[in-house]
Design a protein that fits this description.
Layout (H helix, E strand, L loop, with lengths): L9 E5 L4 H12 L3 E6 L14 E4 L5 H15 L4 E4 L14 H29 L3 E5 L12 H21 L5 E5 L17 H13 L4 H13 L4 E2 L3 H12 L1 H20 L6
Parallel strand pairs: 1-2, 1-4, 2-3, 4-5, 5-6, 6-7
Amino acid sequence: MPPTPRPPRRALVTGGVSGLGLALVRALAARGDQVMAADLADAAPDGVLPAGVTYRQLDVRSDADWAAACEAIERDWGGLDLLVNNAGIAAGGRIDVAEMSEWEATVAVNLLGVVRGCRTFTPMLKRQQSGAIVNIASLAGLTQAPAMSAYNATKAGVVALSETLLHELGPHGIQVSVVCPSFLRTNLAVSLQGADTLAEEGKERYLTRAKRTPEVVAARILRGVDAGRYLILTDADGRVGYWTKRLATPLYRRAMTVPGARMAAVERRGKPGG
């Protein structure tokens, strides 16, 4: 017998007009789902969103914006089936060079933005006794390279939050997934504007030269969500890093000291950027 068709989902995706968020919006819309794309701008760029997708201005740092989005979804859709907390910014920097303002900005978006989304929609999902929360973290939440303290800490926080909610919300019929992709080809590099130019040069190279496309990663995410997986590793790099850290810890630690040693050598030569 052919598989039973999956009913359309009502989905909200933050950071939904560029990069991975846009790829997820397009993939969900192509499946026939009802989708709201949320982002900072007052309006979506012309021609970016598929027909039928709703756009909403939403700053993930704003409790008022989250409350207004929840109210609109309750009014217009009667509920939500899929919350994708995708909005985030890139950050790099050695602990003694990155400014505290960079830490505060990164925490506000990458961690507290996710917390606010989960807090806002959990009461609705509990009333439904159904739905799914998908938090987009990063491989940096599982394996911590040097000179990325703020980014690593916030993404590890998203992983910890997601595992907590997995156990807390599961009894209410709510699925929780956390996604930990490695570098992929997006415009995330434009948010690298910190004081530590030396550290950020390397991160920008990885982001701009990445071979994986958002569309490929989005398809893998949705397969993982459909399968009910909690931890979604979207590429081989992530799986190797994750399991090496757990099963071959000395090897993992030696590998992680290499970029730190290179940066220390540059510092000793007195290169600008920190």
